[in-house]
Every structure is written in structure tokens, then in C-alpha cells.
Design brief:
Distance between the termini: 43 Å
CATH topology of the largest domain: Rossmann fold
Number of helices: 11
Strand order of the largest sheet: 7-6-8-9-10-13-14
CATH architecture of the largest domain: 3-Layer(aba) Sandwich
Structural class: alpha/beta
Mean pLDDT: 94
């Protein structure tokens, strides 16, 4: 196969920049170790759907493989464009259920769908103390889908839930102990936890999507005891059957960045690994051939398991990770 050009729109500026920059560094490190036969082109979508549309169309004209942006909102637009252009896009940054299943044949996702995010936390809660859970969702579709999925899972486990909308006041009184689940943007989750801790009866247990990244430790005065959910955490990557191993990647990333990566970097690399593996199997980068290769692939990368629903492209093999913030930092539980 001739040299492959991989293109990605990532948020290097704007509200998603903290995650887009990690994804860029991860891809650059991966590319440096696989530079033979690969070109990498990354453009800044500025966290703006309009900029994304223009940039992605430009990348489509000159790239063999397209990687999606970070964020469910941006990936929703990217999926629409891929379908319109007759291309296949590899989704590493938008876990919304609607995004993953919106364009069969055009979007392959490596992320656990949003509706399953809360499952490890709720199962842990059910196994210890099945407290009623107040679910605070953010303003976007991501939060609503996390909340809806959490409600469904909680019902199956016999846990009572109350959903609270974005910006709504938290109840000032409680009849007893309760748990809080935050499912919003990073800043929304941090602010919700601060408000909840100031209540006369604060939550006994707290879990937040935002707590799944290391920056949470600097954003909240005392993160101790807070649970976080995410797509990946150091030490949870399976023995990689495909591509660079987790420990090797972490060592190089830490050497470059001075810190370990959060999941946005690792999931971007996993998407690139899966995409190039499928291109090799297919013997080309035509949409139909790539889709067929992805639909029949079951493997593991540094990110964990990969297997899609061959009808929709939704990820069914990967599982979310639950962590808890301790005195020394976050640990897997």
C-alpha cells in the first residue's frame, strides 16, 4: 500500500482545547513511532461546528483516513459530513448514542456509548449502599444521554433516581443520605459538586464524568472521595493485540508532556491504530472496504477492547472505567 495520509480535526483552541491538545500530542507521538508510510495532518476546529465543517471537507479532499473531532456535538456534525461526502470517519471523541448509530457505514466508533457511562458507578453503589441518586445533567445532549442511561440502569438495580436539569437548584433538604451523579461539561460538573457540598445535607457519595480526568484534581479544592467515570485510565489498557502497548505509549507521552495522558489522547491513538489496521486488511481506503474490515474486527489496543455492532458502527466491546480520588490521586476501583 502507498503512503497513507491521516487527517484529524481537533479542538486546539476554544472550549474543548484541553482535550483536543491531548489528542493531538497523542497522535503526534504515535505517528513518530510509525512514520514510515504514514503522514499526519491535524487542523484546529476551534471547538466551532462551522469551522469543523469547513476544515473536515478540506481534509477529506487530501486525506485517505479521517479521524473525528473531540466532543459529541462536534462529532455529530462530522458524521453528517462523512455521510454527505461518502466517506468513513473514525469516531474517538463523541460517545453519544445518537452519534454512534446515526450513519451506519460512515462512522466507526471506538468509545463506550454515553448511555452506559454510569454503569460501573451504579453497580458499585448497588453492591454497597443503594442510596437514592440525584442526577444532574448538563446543557447538551451528552448529559441528557448519560442521565437517561443512568436512570435505566438504576431501575434495573433497584436504585431510586431524581433527575435535575442544568442550572436548576439542588434541593436544600434531604430525608436521608443520598448520592450525586454529575453528567455535564467539565466546568458544569465542578460547579455542581461545589454547590452540592455546601448544602445542609451534602451527598454522601459523589460521581462525575469530569472526575475521570486528572485536571479535576486542580479544579476542585478537595477531590478526595469523588468517583469519576471515563473511557480509559492508566493501567486499564488490555494487553494490546494491535498497535503500540499501553506502557510503551505512556512512557513516551510522559517524556514529552511531563505528565501521564488522560483518555482523550489514548482514544485518539486507538482510533488511528484501528483505522490503519483496517486499511491494511482491506488493502485500500475505500469506504465499503474499510467498513467491512471494521465490522469483522475484534481485537484489543492500548485503549482496551474493540468490537462494533456491524449494523450500526456502535461500539459494543469497550467498557468504561471507574476511578476514585484518593490522597495520592485517582485510582481505579
Amino acid at each position: 500500500m502507498t503512503t497513507l495520509t491521516i487527517g484529524a480535526c481537533l479542538s486546539l483552541s476554544g472550549k474543548h482545547a484541553r482535550f483536543g491538545r491531548q489528542a493531538r500530542l497523542g497522535l503526534e507521538i504515535w505517528h513518530a513511532s510509525n512514520s514510515n508510510g504514514l503522514n499526519l495532518v491535524i487542523e484546529d476546529d476551534r471547538s466551532d461546528p462551522a469551522v469543523l465543517r469547513t476544515s473536515l471537507r478540506g481534509l477529506s479532499d487530501r486525506c485517505d483516513i479521517l479521524l473525528g473531532p473531540y466532543s459529541t456535538q462536534l462529532m455529530r456534525g462530522a458524521g453528517d459530513i462523512a455521510a454527505e461526502l461518502g466517506r468513513l470517519i473514525w469516531n474517538h471523541g463523541g460517545s453519544g448514542d445518537d452519534v454512534e448509530a446515526a450513519h451506519p457505514g460512515h462512522v466507526v466508533s471506538i468509545l463506550t456509548p454515553t448511555s452506559r457511562y454510569a454503569e460501573p458507578f451504579l453497580r458499585r453503589l448497588a453492591g454497597t449502599e443503594a442510596l437514592p441518586v440525584r442526577i444532574v445533567c448538563g446543557k447538551g445532549g451528552f448529559g441528557r444521554q448519560v442521565a437517561a442511561g443512568a436512570e435505566t440502569i438504576a431501575r434495573s438495580l433497584g436504585i431510586d433516581t431524581v433527575r435535575i436539569g442544568p442550572g436548576d437548584d439542588l434541593p436544600q433538604t434531604s430525608e436521608g443520605a443520598w448520592a450525586l451523579l454529575c453528567a455535564g461539561a467539565f466546568e458544569e460538573d465542578v460547579e455542581t459538586i461545589r454547590r452540592a457540598r455546601s448544602l445542609p445535607t451534602p451527598p454522601r457519595v459523589v460521581c462525575a464524568v469530569a472526575a475521570g480526568v486528572r485536571e479535576f484534581g486542580q479544579a476542585l479544592d478537595d477531590p478526595h472521595g469523588v468517583y469519576g467515570v471515563g473511557q480509559w485510565f492508566p493501567g486499564t489498557g488490555a494487553s494490546a493485540e494491535t498497535g503500540i502497548g499501553e506502557s510503551d505509549f505512556l512512557a513516551v507521552y510522559q517524556e514529552h508532556a511531563g505528565v501521564l495522558p488522560d483518555y482523550p489522547a489514548v482514544q485518539a491513538v486507538a482510533a488511528a491504530i484501528i483505522a490503519t489496521r483496517c486499511a491494511a486488511v482491506a488493502g485500500g481506503t475505500g469506504r465499503d472496504a474499510l467498513w467491512s474490515a471494521a465490522a469483522s474486527l475484534e481485537t484489543t489496543t492500548l485503549f482496551g477492547a474493540f468490537r462494533i455492532d456491524p449494523r450500526t458502527g456502535t461500539q459494543v466491546g469497550h467498557r468504561p472505567v471507574l476511578i476514585r480520588w484518593e490522597a495520592g490521586g485517582p485510582v481505579v476501583v
